[in-house]
Amino acid sequence: MKRILYSIIFCIVISAAAHAQIGKAFPNMECRNLDDGKISLPSGLIGKKSVLCLAYSQKAQEKLEKWLSEAIPKFVLRGDETSLIPLEPYNVNTYFIAMYTGANKVAANNASTQIKNNVDKLLHSYVLIYAGDLEPYKTKLNMINKDDPYVFVLDHKGNVEYMYSGAYNAKAMDDIENLIADEE
């Protein structure tokens, strides 16, 4: 009986922690896109909702690839190869952020060049590189599992409206799409 009670308490604590950042401001983050343009988050996003996908480990970046393959057509291109007339993208900011922290900060420039060479030029402005400390984001955004990517939806003011962590999930994608659908 005690095990069941402890399991329930553990699930409640984890669930509460995962949603602790909802409604709070996304912490400041200085990034560069693949064309070497600077962008400040969330201040550079004010006025539109935003979808941010973050990864700070190789395993997380690998899991993020499925998010990319699903999110780019929905949020950036909004059409498919068979469409005669692709739909306009949602009126949201969309960024995929590779985070280089700790000892990996020094590898950010080389990684940026490598990513740039492997990503379609049309998408360079949507891919951001962050090189800096992890702790402010890990703590404020509850990014505790380094092997998972994190997907955030920010409101018009840069506050976290939704958060999901882990491998691609169709339900999570539907939730995100429903949150931003009213921005068209």
Which features does this protein show?
22% strand; alpha/beta; 5 helices; 35% helix; Glutaredoxin; seven-stranded mixed sheet
- Measured between the Cα atoms of the first and last residue, the distance is 51 Å
CATH topology tier name:
Glutaredoxin
Mind telling me the CATH class?
Alpha Beta
**Order of helical and strand elements:** HEEEHEHEHEEH
Q: How much β-strand is present in the residues?
A: 15-25%
Query: Number of DSSP helices?
Result: 5
Sheet having the most strands:
7 strands, mixed
Low-pLDDT segments, ≥5 res:
2-20
- Overall CATH architecture: 3-Layer(aba) Sandwich
Query: What coarse outline follows from CA principal-axis ratios?
Result: globular
Helix content: 25-40%
The overall number of domains is 1
The neighbouring-strand order within the major sheet is 2-1-5-4-3-6-7
Which superfamily, in CATH terms, is the homologous superfamily?
Glutaredoxin
Number of strands: 7
What is the mean pLDDT?
A: 84
Structural class: alpha/beta
Radius of gyration: 17 Å
